[in-house]
Write a structure and sequence with these properties.
It is built from 10 helices and 10 strands. The protein has 248 residues and is of the alpha/beta class.
Length: 248
């Protein structure tokens, strides 16, 4: 489905991705782990079209999208960022943000979109999240981080993309909000078979969800674990073990 071949990304002779090649199959839910500076965000930026590779090619469903920019790929690839402020418009209400997401790939102004999106439809959307309908009238910037990220996930998947990129979506959330988001997201992804890539620093998350784990190190994928191989892994095997004896 998604194929990256010999991708090289460098800035000022500093190679971030080095001849990276990988294949993502339809319906995959791949969790990507790696240390800071391993190239995870650059990897996602390259898939999304925010960064163009110096070398290599990217194909989606057999179509070469290497030279398509971020906007041109947005109809096929959507992304949920770690920073909740990047996923929605804070000054607009929840209802307005949902309407924008609903009509993001159609020729409709926001005002027209709101007219064509009945209140009961909006209430049904937030009802599935277990959230009171009164949230629809609140500005996104007034919500808690967990609520905003949950609504943002709905926005990102309102029109199901070919590829969903989850860029450390729980990093800024407390444990309770993280659990709620991941529960909803994994259920949705499984139900709709959304092809998904998720970046996380948390090895426990990596071992709990998804059907594959990739380890990114120094700009290349050094390890790939299948669903069956995940069973025998421990968190230390994914991120290394801290040598507490030498900390003091």
């Amino acid at each position: 489905m998604l194929k990256l071949k010999n991708i090289d990304v460098s800035f000022n002779n500093n190679h971030i991705l080095q001849k990276l090649s990988c294949n993502v199959e339809q319906g995959d839910f791949i969790v990507i782990v790696g240390a800071n500076g391993a190239g995870k965000s650059t990897f996602f930026n390259t898939i999304a079209g925010k960064i163009m590779p110096n070398q290599g090619s990217i194909h989606l469903d057999g179509i070469d999208i290497t030279n398509l920019n971020e906007q041109q790929r947005s109809g096929m690839i959507t992304r949920l960022f770690q920073n909740t402020k990047l996923n929605s418009v804070g000054s607009l209400t929840v209802a307005q943000n949902l309407a924008m997401a609903h009509y993001s790939r159609r020729s409709a102004r926001l005002v027209d979109g709101m007219k064509d999106m009945p209140r009961n439809q909006l209430e049904e959307i937030v009802g599935e999240l277990g959230v009171d309908a009164s949230i629809l009238n609140k500005q996104m910037q007034t919500l808690s981080g967990g609520q905003r990220q949950l609504i943002s996930f709905v926005m990102a998947t309102r029109l199901i993309p070919k590829i969903l990129l989850l860029d450390e979506p729980t990093a800024a959330l407390d444990p309770k909000a993280s659990t709620r988001l991941l529960q909803y997201a994994t259920q949705f992804i499984k139900k709709h078979r959304v092809t998904t890539l998720l970046i996380t620093h948390d090895p426990h998350i990596a071992l709990s969800i998804g059907n594959k784990i990739w380890v990114l190190e120094n700009g290349i994928i050094t390890k790939e674990y299948s669903h069956e191989e995940k069973v025998g892994l421990t968190p230390d095997m994914l991120i290394g073990q801290i040598d507490y004896a030498n900390l003091c």
